[in-house]
Amino acid sequence: MAKDISCKRSRYTLRTSDRRVFRRCLRKWDYISSMRQNLTRSGAEQNINFWFGSGIHFALEDYHGWNVYGDPRKAFYAYYNAFKEDELPLGAEACYELGMSMLSYYLTWYPRYNSATQFETVWLDENGEQVKPFTPGATPCVEQSFMLPLDVSVITDIETDTIYAKYVEGSENDAYAYPGQGTLVTVAPGDYKFDGEGMAVVQDDEHLWIDAQGVTHKVQVVPIFYHGTMDRIVSDKFGRWWILDYKTAKGADTNKLDTDDQIGAYIWAANKLFKKPIYGFIYLQLTKDSVQAPRRLKNGDLSVDKKQKTTYSLLKMEILKDYGSVDRAPNKIIQFLNDLAARETPEGDRFIRWDFVRRNEEQIANVEKCIYGELSMMLNPDLYCYPNPTRDCIWDCPVRDACIASDRGDTDTIEAFFKDWEKRPRNEDGNIDPWRENLPKPEVVREIPLEEILDSAKYMTIEFDSSSEETGFKFLYDDEDDRV
Hints:
Layout: E1 12-14, H1 16-24, H2 26-32, E2 39-41, H3 48-63, H4 72-80, H5 92-114, E3 120-121, E4 123-124, E5 130-131, E6 139-140, E7 142-157, E8 163-166, E9 182-187, E10 192-194, E11 200-202, E12 206-211, E13 216-235, E14 241-249, H6 261-273, E15 278-287, H7 312-323, H8 331-343, E16 352-357, H9 361-378, H10 393-396, H11 400-408, H12 411-417, E17 421-423, H13 442-446, H14 450-454
Parallel strand pairs: 1-13, 14-15
Antiparallel strand pairs: 2-17, 3-13, 4-5, 4-6, 7-8, 7-13, 9-12, 10-11, 12-13, 13-14, 15-16
């Protein structure tokens, strides 16, 4: 195109989550994708898992970035108090206590494991060059939102945002460019239109879409972007860049790492976005559970109950306090200690672990092929968005009731269901976090005693006396030939 005619009001984005939903269920994708109906539930987030995950992400974003709250637990406190009482999802109070416990343990876990890697958040200046942290004018690479152009554009209705066709370069006024779909007509600059007083004025480019039924629609040609948010970009002790991503879940899952589509897509995108190549991906998982100090019996002896939520290092510390050395402890306590050791790996324990994942050039190239292949299917004008019901629908589909009503042809129920939904605003970066505007001022939160924020001293006592070497973690990616 000779002129940039991209729509400034509307953005069409492809996300990894969109791709997953597309593969999972076309009907669900049709409801929520920005390239289809673009619907979202009105009001504050009511899914407690999403709400909680956002809070943990914000706490770590602040702590490893500007650190305006001085402590990730104080940042999490600020997040919780950014919501009015009637905006908090059911279970938020319990999740507040859980979050404080998890973040307290993170403050112990992370320094011990990071001593081998020496990861630091990357800070970039206005030119995208890496500079020292807190350099004036620089910003930390936390919650790094990106919009990567895919060099694919679509013809969209200006009023309804409906996508009529994938744009073909130079197809204006070509009646054969979109067989069976319609014709893209351009009114070129220099043509005249009349204003309200009958005066002829020169108008900008206008695009019209004449569909197969001969109906004319005013349209624009809009580019599609790959959108995502990288939790953190870090550099290791050799200066190599990694993407670090936080996950909160019931339990750590490492089986999917070799095929995880987010890992491949983010490495692919980051290599195009930054001036420095991405060496790998750090998948850091925080289990939704509270670490506890080893329990003691009424007589003061250490409990060997295997159900207690403690760690090898915490138990060993208590053994050393009681007996001076592990060898002097009773056999049943030593056996329990060995059992806890067997549950842990060099990458972490049952509460927090990280895994390091790399993708070679061939894998990254195949990621790109998958993205464009899926996008081509998404833009197929004849695509019928049928449902894919599974037993997971009951918990993972927010539009399940509308889907069932759709199969029954019950338009009244569908209409009533979507009264609580709205079109997602198409803003510049795709992220909408209205709660950020309501965060308490950092200077106020910093003055609040930590004991008051935690509401329990137990979260402050989970500490280790042991050195980082005791974790068994070794940074295996330390070959100097791999430095970039």
